[in-house]
Write a structure and sequence with these properties.
This protein is mostly beta strands. It has helices at residues 47-72, 165-172; strands at residues 6-9, 26-29, 81-91, 112-137, 140-163, 182-191, 194-200, 214-216, 220-221. It has two domains: 6-72, no CATH class; 77-94 and 107-234, Immunoglobulins (Immunoglobulin-like).
């Protein structure tokens, strides 16, 4: 008579991978031909082994979920503000037509140094941000800062500072102003006294300017120059003294 012989064998290893006890009872189903002890084919491992395989997988999933949740909960302060680009240009004085008095022509051979920086803000609006400028020109480090207010969330926020033609001539000691005289320029973005980011026009070590003697008072914000009425919407609003 053909019949299936079922046996429960203790301490019989099953071929699997995982952190399981190899001495858990297995249920072996022997084929009809396997009438003698030890013959037949293993077709099924007990459910206790499957549970043992799934347990470490489930624990791994729980740990991974916790790690992801923790990462998402981290503060975004490090990326709320970022300096994206710095441009330097030598430009001439703006020309205006005025009919109420004698006309004076600006010398178009003279050049201003313009340093413009583009920066990104993530918050919907930021009350105040201060941008500090460090301009190394012909061996002199000139510094200045401007505070902007009511800054919107954007990657196209801009700030700009200037050095007058007369100051450039003074720094050149009578020589002609050239592009090579501008050695480097850096801008720091500061919120409530905390440094958020820094950028340099030329590749250099962070805060390369920190150990150099500084000359203050010669770098002007846009409202202190004849460019005050130009490109009003291009630049962030400047905080004015009250």
């Amino acid at each position: 008579m053909n019949r299936t012989i079922l046996k429960t064998i203790s301490q019989t290893p099953c071929s699997y991978r995982g952190n399981l006890d190899a001495h858990v009872p297995l249920t072996l189903i022997l084929s009809p031909e396997g009438r003698r002890e030890g013959e037949g084919r293993v077709t099924h491992c007990a459910q206790t082994h499957r549970a043992g395989v799934l347990r470490p997988l489930l624990m791994s999933a729980i740990i991974l979920s916790a790690i992801v949740a923790t990462a998402m909960a981290q503060p975004r302060g490090a990326v709320d503000f970022q300096l994206l680009k710095i441009n330097t240009n030598f430009i001439s004085s703006p020309q205006f037509t005025y009919t109420g008095a004698e006309q004076f022509q600006a010398d178009q051979r003279e050049r201003w140094l313009e340093v413009e920086v583009t920066f990104a803000c993530a918050p919907e609006f930021t009350d105040e941000l201060t941008l500090k400028y460090f301009i190394l020109f012909n061996g002199k480090l000139l510094t200045g800062e401007v505070t902007h207010v009511n800054i919107p969330a954007s990657r196209e926020n801009r700030s700009v500072m200037y050095i007058t033609p007369k100051t450039l001539q003074r720094l050149m000691l009578g020589r002609t102003v050239t592009n090579n005289a501008l050695q480097n320029a850096a801008v720091q973005l500061v919120q409530q006294g905390a440094l958020k980011d820094e950028i340099s026009a030329q590749r250099a070590a962070p805060q390369w300017h920190a150990t150099l003697p500084q000359v203050a008072g010669l770098v002007l914000n846009k409202n202190e120059t004849p460019f005050i009425s130009l490109y009003w919407d291009r630049y962030c609003q400047i905080k004015t003294p009250r």
